[in-house]
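Cross-check.
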Amino acid sequence: MLQVNNLIKSYGSTQVLTGVDFKVNKGETVAIMGPSGCGKSTTIRCINRLTEPDGGEIIFKGVPVLELSEQQLLSLRKEIGFVFQKFNLIERLTVLENIILPVIKTEVEACEQELEQKALQVLEKVKLAEKATSSIKQLSGGQKQRVGIARALMIDPSLLLLDEPTASLDPILVREVLEVIEELTDLQDTAIIIVTHEVSFALQVADLILLMDQGRIVEQGSPAEIFVAPQSEVGQKYKKLLEYY
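Predicted model, tokenized:
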């Protein structure tokens, strides 16, 4: 479904990605992990070109993403959901309006009543149906992030990207968001890539773990391979971290 080859990105004289290579299959859950500043978020943002890479190749369903025009890219993004670290919600709108608004912009022929019905179904998935008419200002951080997840699910994505979805949350709220994401990993037709520092969560839900360090992937494999017998220095640090859980 997704193939990334020799992805390169710099900001000024700082090289953030130094040649990232990986692939993701349909229905697979992939966790990208590594120390802060290693290029995890840049990698995931390059996939749908929220960040423009300087070089390399991204192939999504056979389509060379980096060669697309702006209009073609907008069309492609209808298949790729994105969940941001800091919610990116409009506070003056209700939960339901936040979820529907991006879809109305891309599906001009869609019936608003049908979209509302679908939005309510999506809110059920993230356990927020009772908050449909609530203001964003009335929600906790965990609830806001679940609204962000619901918004991404509205397009029925074949690829769902989550960029450190618990990074802005208090530890007590992290679990409620991870539980929702964990349920989403059971979706057979949706591939999920999640950037996360949550080791035990990655161990439980990921089919494949990519460990990054200094702008490149230094190790990849199943959770058992990575956390039981790591080959990289970063992998060995994660293994030690697991001993504290």
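The domain at 2-93+158-242 is CATH 3.40.50.300 (Rossmann fold). The two ends are 34 Å apart (CA to CA). Passed to J.P. for a second look.
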